Amino acid sequence: MGDPKFLRRTYDTPKHPWEQARMDEERKLLAKYGLKNKRELWKAESLLRNYRRQARQLQARLRAKEPQAEKETKWLLDSLARLGMLPTGTPSLDDVLALETSDLVQRRLQWIVYVKGLAATTHQARQLIVHGHISVGDHRVTRPGYFVRSEEEPRIAYDGSSPLSDEGHQIRSAIRAKAESAANPVSPMGEGPGAPPGAPSAPGPAPAGGA
Predict the structure, then answer these.
(1) Which domain-ending residue is among 55, 82, 105?
(2) I need a labelling partner for 48 at 20 to 30 A (CA). Which of 35, 68, 187, 206 fits?
């Protein structure tokens, strides 16, 4: 059983830690999803390997026509469907084997808070969660790595006791301003959407009957 003070590691590290291609891919995922370190990524990869292993074993057991395998297949598919990781309709074990690490990381609370526009960046999303500004339904969640179920996603919002629940809070104003600037990128030519302030407008048609 072991000493409870010394918990066993719940993830696997890479067998070849200095592979350049793998390291480059890890850096991209860390930057995109705002992960704190590679350990968070390795945890997601280990969990995904576990799902894939279960799917392969269930495929073999289904071919052997084991009645229990059908029940376990349904449990696995229903569990992943609740997490929003499988396509709608009638998912199969092949869909589980097609999952990638990004599919799992995108179900983290940190990423969904950013996608919903509650934070300007993934790093700010992490900070808001850790500081207790985000709730899922009636529960405040302070773990950025919390996996959000599909039914919980619409209920993610600023916590009612947080100062950010006020629409006029300066941080929320800054988040909205950044979202608007991203939606309307600055154009180097002319006035109008995306034009820099004070840029000259394009000349219009000459008035009829001019001098």
Answers:
(1) 105
(2) 68
| 102 bridge partner residues | none
Could you tell me if 91 and 44 lie in one domain?
Answer: yes
CA 1 vs CA 4, 46, 50, 74, 112: distances in Å: 8, 22, 22, 31, 37
Number of domains the chain contains: 2
Dihedrals phi, psi of 156, to nearest 5 degrees: -80, 125
Average pLDDT, consecutive stretches of 10 residues, N- to C-terminus, the chain (211 residues): 64 82 92 93 94 97 95 95 89 95 95 95 96 95 95 95 92 90 66 48 48 38
CA dihedral 4, 76, 40, 153 (to 10 degrees): -110
Q: What's the CATH number where 168 sits?
A: 3.10.290.10
Distance CA 141, CA 129 (A): 7
- List Cβ neighbours of 26 (8 Å cut-off, separation of 6 or more): 38, 41
Beta bridge partners of 147: 108
Of the candidates 79, 81, 148, 86, the one whose C-alpha atom is nearest the C-alpha of residue 118 is 148
Range of the domain at 115: 109-181
What is the reported pTM? 0.79
Same domain, 61 and 88: yes
